[in-house]
């Protein structure tokens, strides 16, 4: 079924009986042309663009849990293209352009809302750094406006401007930044990939990668062996573990990132706001909850839940920036496992095994990358050539040190990289 206003009205009149599951539930076939390990945002978008852009439809996405159960359904949904360094800025710019047509492309409402994002700065030095970042964004063809304190006050009057420790000097405004509905992105890509013939196989964990004579020949799974001449590893926080199945040791640490949501409130925060002196960012969901988060937990872990010290740290930052938030009740907090690289930038590359590709290292910024990553990774898997906007995301930069892109991305300073 093609979704449209007409279908919604028709179903309303005829008792909502025509809706169907949005993707099939096939059993795995013995062999495919390509296998994608991981049914998160990046795995699903890769499968979709392999089918759409390269005509490869004999593909399986193997997901150990359920679609939307990983980070793609756990993030704080911020979408932006405000990167500074060559290598990152053209990639995220390309990804944002894909976001801008995504709902039409997938025929699925991903609720992409370009409500504007403001990164606050709190010192002269930070202002200068943001001015440079803004110039890089404009140079890339994206939008950036440097606001002084009064400029921020006009847009975000509820902030605590005169906090003695971190007074707000101004902000870098990125009008095309915003949010999207995270699980709708997963569902939209799953549906669109399925419609093009991709098999999405849930509850199918990959337990081994089969290699013969330096060439990948398939995978072992909890639902049996499956053959394929091309395999893409796209498993976010589990990247090190799955790559180890092919004998690889990745430059990746897995850390928990937590997020929080309050009870639903009347509209009060109509932008995405990020605090430049602590790792804190906030937006308001369409249901009214204030959605916010902070830094990763500083120890490696595969537990998708956080701890109290980081919660206290995030709440402190929230209260410093916008004391009004102290009146809201936090309803839920949760965590996801982040694949952190030493330079804060991702990897989209071939491996030393023929036919085996890897897409990982998105740190805490991979939601906004979902369309761009899938597009570029599909290009690499289908053609064997790096897609220009993602051409610098090579693994060997961690071997020889050349081409490192040391960029966290949100504007606040590095704590870990
Ligand atoms: C709290 C939080 C807030 C965040 N906020 C933002 C934000 O505001 N903006 C932003 O851009 N990014 C944000 N991120 C980061 C972003 O969510 C991730 O970088 C991105 O979702 C990772 O890619 P993915 O969607 O493919 O990952 P996932 O959804 O985690 O997909 C990976 C999948 O691989 C599967 N898998 C793992 N091992 C196997 C196996 N052996 N076999 C089969 N399947 C396997 C997993 O079950 C999982 O479904 C945030 C993350 C978190 C946790």
What's the shape? globular
The biggest beta sheet is recorded as: 8 strands, mixed
The residue ranges in which pLDDT falls below 50 over 5 or more consecutive positions are: 410-417
Q: Estimate percent helicity.
A: 25-40%
Bound molecules: flavin-adenine dinucleotide
What is the gyration radius calculated from CA atoms? Answer: 21 Å
- Residue-averaged pLDDT, rounded? 95
The count of helical stretches stands at: 11
Helix and strand element order = HEHEEHHEHEHEEHEEEEHEEEEHEEEHH
What is the strand content?
25-35%
Class computed from helices, strands and strand pairing: alpha/beta
Span from first to last CA?
A: 46 Å
The tally of strands reads 18
Enzyme class: oxidoreductase
Protein name: Sarcosine oxidase subunit beta
Pfam families: DAO (PF01266)
Cofactor: FMN; FAD
Commentary on this structure:
- Residues 35-78 form the Rhodanese domain.
- Helix content is 28%, strand content 26%.
- It has 417 residues and is an alpha/beta fold.
- Strands 1, 2, 8, 9, 10, 11, 17 and 18 form an 8-stranded mixed β-sheet that branches. Strands 5-6-4-13-14-15-12-16 form an 8-stranded mixed β-sheet. Strands 3-7 form a two-stranded antiparallel sheet.
- It is globular.
- The N and C termini lie far apart (46 Å).
- It binds flavin-adenine dinucleotide.
Give the helices and strands, then pairings.
Elements lengths: L4 H9 L17 E7 L3 H14 L4 E4 L15 E2 L9 H12 L1 H5 L10 E5 L2 H16 L5 E4 H7 L14 E5 L3 E2 L2 H14 L3 E3 L4 E7 L2 E7 L2 E10 L5 H6 L8 E12 L7 E4 L4 E5 L4 E12 L7 H14 L8 E11 L6 E4 L5 E5 L9 H14 L13 H4 L17
Parallel strand pairs: 1-2, 1-11, 2-8, 4-13, 11-18
Antiparallel strand pairs: 3-7, 4-6, 5-6, 9-10, 10-11, 12-15, 12-16, 13-14, 14-15, 17-18
Helix pairs in contact: 2-7, 2-10, 3-10
The structure holds flavin-adenine dinucleotide.
Main location: cytoplasm
Enzyme class: oxidoreductase
Protein name: Sarcosine oxidase subunit beta
């Amino acid at each position: 079924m093609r979704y449209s206003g007409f279908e919604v009205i028709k179903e309303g009149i005829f008792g909502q009986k025509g809706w169907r599951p949005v993707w099939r539930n096939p059993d795995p076939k013995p062999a495919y042309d390509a296998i994608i390990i991981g049914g998160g945002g990046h795995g699903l978008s890769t499968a979709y663009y392999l089918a759409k852009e390269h005509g490869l439809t004999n593909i399986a996405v193997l997901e150990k849990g359920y679609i939307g159960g990983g980070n793609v359904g756990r993030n704080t949904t911020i979408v932006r293209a405000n990167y500074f360094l060559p290598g990152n800025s053209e990639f995220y710019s390309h990804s944002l352009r894909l976001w801008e047509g995504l709902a039409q492309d997938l025929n699925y409402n991903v609720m992409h809302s370009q409500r504007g994002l403001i990164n606050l700065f709190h010192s002269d030095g930070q202002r200068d750094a943001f001015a440079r970042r803004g110039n890089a964004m404009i140079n890339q063809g994206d939008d950036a406006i440097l606001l002084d304190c009064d400029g921020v006050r006009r847009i975000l009057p509820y902030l605590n401007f005169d906090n003695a420790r971190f007074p707000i000097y101004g902000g870098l405004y990125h009008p095309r930044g915003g949010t999207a509905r995270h699980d709708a992105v997963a569902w939209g890509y799953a549906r669109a990939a399925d419609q093009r013939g991709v098999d999405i196989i849930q509850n199918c964990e990959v337990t081994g990668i089969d290699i013969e004579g330096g060439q990948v020949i398939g995978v072992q799974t909890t639902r049996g062996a499956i053959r394929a001449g091309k395999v893409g590893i796209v498993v976010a926080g589990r990247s090190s573990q799955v790559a180890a199945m092919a004998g690889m040791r990745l430059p990746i640490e897995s850390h928990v990132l937590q997020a929080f949501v309050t009870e639903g409130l009347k509209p009060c925060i109509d932008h995405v706001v990020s605090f430049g002196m602590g790792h804190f960012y906030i937006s308001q969901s369409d249901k009214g909850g204030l959605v916010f988060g902070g830094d990763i937990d500083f120890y490696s872990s595969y537990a998708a839940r956080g701890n109290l010290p980081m919660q206290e740290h995030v709440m402190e930052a929230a209260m410093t920036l916008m004391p009004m938030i102290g009146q809201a009740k936090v309803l839920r907090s949760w965590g996801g496992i982040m694949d952190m690289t030493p330079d804060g930038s991702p990897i989209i590359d071939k491996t030393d095994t023929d036919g085996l590709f890897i897409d990982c290292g998105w740190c805490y910024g991979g939601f906004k990358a979902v369309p761009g990553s899938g597009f570029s990774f599909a290009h690499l898997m289908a053609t064997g050539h790096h897609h220009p906007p993602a051409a610098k995301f090579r693994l060997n930069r961690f071997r020889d040190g050349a081409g490192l892109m040391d960029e966290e991305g949100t504007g606040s300073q590095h704590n870990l990289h």
